């Protein structure tokens, strides 16, 4: 081998050996990241996204902006992320409804978050509150409400077809054998506005958006949808305590990217999401009446799938459909 050939071969070998080290460099976003929230500003989804955006931006060294894309029970925003580049710059604020209800309620839409997304990390959980409107409803507890609903027609609002708000109410009606007319709104803010205007008799919405109005007396809380009482409303019984045996629906939030996202990008984002779970972030979530939850990253997709299957089974059994 000539000296020139030998040097060329050694140079090539050096490049080959250096390649793994170059590839091992963690991914770094080159442009601002967007978190797509599938409901309007002001609701709990928007609140959670804005709480986590700031620490996530610090971890990634890049701006994180919130983009509200409401409509079709969250499918418009979900589809927007599905159709975006798989570059880690578009993140979905995932919810129980998007993963666990919409694939059934919007079966013909072609949108399926459980199929199309992988989780970056869980953020928190919140209860829905069953609230009635004083002046429109006389009942002060669930048993009295059931009797009142059997005597006269009632109207309830939700944050949209297929939402956890909708399913919470529909399951309650099914389990208690009563009927009411459903009016879907485009998110928590419009629903709260309708309840404050006394346009509906009752509604199910999160502790994050209901608690202040319950404390002011504008809403009367009859029960929460989880098996544990909400820390923000310790005097409000659970549905099971109120006599609806077996009722249990909690709402969770996570961050997710499309499954076709390259693994190095997913790994870097998961690392960043894991680091934002600080006591400071947890305190801010609790201030918004959201309880932080922790699920190991390796178990995240399986945890979500198990939860989603339960919600889908309920939606299927109740024949819920927006198509």
UniProtKB/TrEMBL annotation:
Pfam families: TctC. SUPFAM superfamilies: Periplasmic binding protein-like II (SSF53850). Belongs to the UPF0065 (bug) family. Gene3D superfamilies: Bordetella uptake gene, domain 1, Periplasmic binding protein-like II. This is ABC transporter substrate-binding protein. InterPro entries: BUG (IPR005064), Bug_dom1 (IPR042100). It comes from Neoroseomonas lacus. Transmembrane segments: none annotated.
């Amino acid at each position: 081998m000539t000296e020139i050939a030998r040097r060329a071969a050694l140079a090539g070998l050096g490049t080959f050996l250096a390649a793994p080290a170059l590839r091992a460099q963690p991914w770094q976003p080159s442009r601002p990241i967007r978190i797509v929230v599938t409901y309007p500003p002001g609701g709990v989804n928007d609140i959670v996204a804005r709480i986590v955006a700031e620490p996530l931006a610090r971890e990634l060294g890049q701006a994180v902006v919130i983009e509200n894309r409401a409509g079709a029970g969250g499918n418009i925003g979900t589809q927007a992320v599905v159709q975006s580049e798989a570059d880690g710059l578009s993140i979905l604020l995932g919810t129980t409804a998007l993963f666990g209800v919409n694939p059934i309620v919007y079966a013909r839409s072609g949108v399926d978050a459980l199929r199309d997304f992988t989780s970056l990390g869980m953020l928190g959980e919140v209860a829905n509150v069953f609230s009635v409107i004083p002046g429109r409803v006389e009942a002060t507890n669930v048993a009295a409400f059931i009797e009142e609903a059997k005597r006269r027609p009632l109207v309830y609002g939700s944050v949209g077809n297929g939402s956890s708000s909708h399913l919470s109410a529909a399951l309650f009606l099914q389990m208690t054998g009563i009927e009411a007319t459903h009016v879907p709104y485009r998110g928590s803010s419009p629903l709260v506005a309708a309840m404050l205007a006394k346009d509906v008799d009752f509604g199910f919405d999160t502790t994050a958006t209901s608690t202040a109005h319950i404390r002011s007396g504008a809403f009367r809380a009859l029960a929460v949808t989880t098996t544990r009482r909400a820390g923000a409303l310790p005097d409000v019984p659970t549905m099971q305590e109120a006599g609806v045996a077996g009722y249990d629906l909690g709402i969770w939030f996570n961050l997710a990217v499309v499954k076709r996202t390259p693994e190095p990008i997913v790994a870097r984002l998961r690392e960043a999401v894991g680091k934002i779970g600080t006591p400071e972030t947890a305190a801010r979530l609790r201030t918004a009446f959201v309880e932080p939850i922790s699920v190991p990253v390796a178990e995240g997709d399986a945890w979500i799938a198990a939860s989603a299957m339960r919600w889908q089974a309920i939606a299927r059994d109740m024949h819920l459909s927006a198509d």
